[in-house]
Inverse folding.
């Protein structure tokens, strides 16, 4: 079932690669699936990095990327992502 979800979201992203809403929805699904299998955290991180390229000033993307980096064991990268998110939009925190 998880593979089926991944394939359908791959199709949606391939049809509309710059649609941030589709990408964010997929990220949410991957984060939910990571509770079953932590391997999905790596996929969610990759997609968050793509989302950050599409919307570099969205502080929530950087914050979530920092949290995922922390869970993947790359604490220093996570801290840097959170700092960057705060620098981009300090009024949101």
């Amino acid at each position: 079932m998880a593979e089926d979800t991944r394939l359908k979201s791959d199709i949606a992203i391939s049809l509309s690669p710059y649609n941030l809403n589709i990408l964010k929805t997929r990220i949410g699904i991957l984060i939910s699936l990571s509770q079953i299998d932590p391997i999905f955290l790596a996929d969610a991180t990759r997609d968050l990095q793509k989302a950050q390229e599409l919307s570099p000033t969205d502080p929530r993307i950087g914050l979530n990327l920092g949290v995922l980096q922390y869970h993947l064991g790359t604490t220093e990268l996570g801290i840097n992502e959170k700092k960057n998110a705060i620098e981009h939009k300090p009024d949101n925190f």
Q: What stands out?
A: The helical segments are 2-15, 20-33, 39-54, 59-71, 75-88. The chain is about 75% helix and 0% strand. The CA atoms of residues 48 and 65 lie 6 Å apart. The mean pLDDT is 84.
